[in-house]
Amino acid sequence: MDNIAGTKSGLTWAVHISVVFLVALWVFPTLGLLVSSFRTTDQISSSGWWKAMFPTEQTIQLRTGGAAEAVQVDGVYVVEGNMLTDEGGPGLGSELQAFGVTSRGIGAFQIGETAEFGDDETLVLNEDGTYRYTSAEEPGRRGQRVFVTAITPAQATLGNYRTILFSGSGQDNMAKAFFNTMTVTVPATIIPIVIAAFAAYALAWMDFPGRALLIALVVALLVVPLQLALIPLLRLHLEIGIGKGYLGVWLAHTGFGLPLAIYLLRNYMVGLPRDIIENAKVDGATDFQIFTKIILPLSFPALASFAIFQFLWTWNDLLVAKVFLIDSTGSTTVMTNQIVELLGTRGGNWEILATAAFVSISVPLVVFFAMQRYLVRGLLAGSVK
Hints:
The protein has 14 helices and 9 strands. It is α+β, with helices and mostly antiparallel strands. It has 3 domains: about 10-50; about 55-150, no CATH class; about 165-380, MetI-like (MetI-like fold, Orthogonal Bundle). The strands form 2 sheets. It has a 5-stranded antiparallel β-sheet with strand order 2-3-8-7-6, with no helix packed on it.
């Protein structure tokens, strides 16, 4: 009875748990990047992304006004302001807990307490954020350093995206890299699909000498690592003058993607009903008419399946872009390479890195969820008769 078709396995619960675990393994890091991309440096350093919806305690280094804001009263220099609303402050709605004037005593004084330090210097910080700093000597240009501990409400900022997408031509600008990546990815996805569709139809439905040998060659090319062909192919591109631009990287991605595309599409096309093709030939249709009016519409799931894979591979590619997009000016830098540059220049700014990473994965996510219904149908093509 255990082998009767249709009965459920006793390990169904294990399969469900494994699926949930794998889904969580991919969803939580992506969700973490999304949440972190809307947080500030202080928020990221003080709490994890899962606490972004709750008030958090953080210590912020601020400064009082300097010599330009100082007013002399009875022989004493006085500076007044508001720590909540001054530049870099936690903002209105935050609850001040303590403050300090040295890195070793960041919470040495309570709110409302008068801090006495230095040469006749005092500082009072009130609950509403207002402060009064006095000094017998004229304050410096940058003012007195103050460490403020505050509980800040949950808040989000678009500043990271403005920095990444609209910061000009600097290394933080991802807008140019985004369009460069689109320029590489879209043609590198369309070109191999067009070529592979013609080749797959020929290998599936046209009789000619050497067809079996070509099919075997396509299968053999599936296991060839692309790293083996990078240097010879680059030398060839440089000799013919296409090794430093988009054309070279398009052709490289096309060559590396064609074996899988031909194999996948050929397996799908060969499983289409033979009667349809034979009836079309009896009616006088040419191979080109059969291909464009019958085969292509019926093969859309397989075409979409390969398009997903090719788009994702090309979008996330770093190696091929590094080799074939040789440009010292950075005008053809793709997003993966731009993120590597950010790791070197902004390695401590996690909010910038998280924003750049999420901008990079947003388009593949949209493409995958828009076309994922065709993915399984295309991958299983030809596996069941």
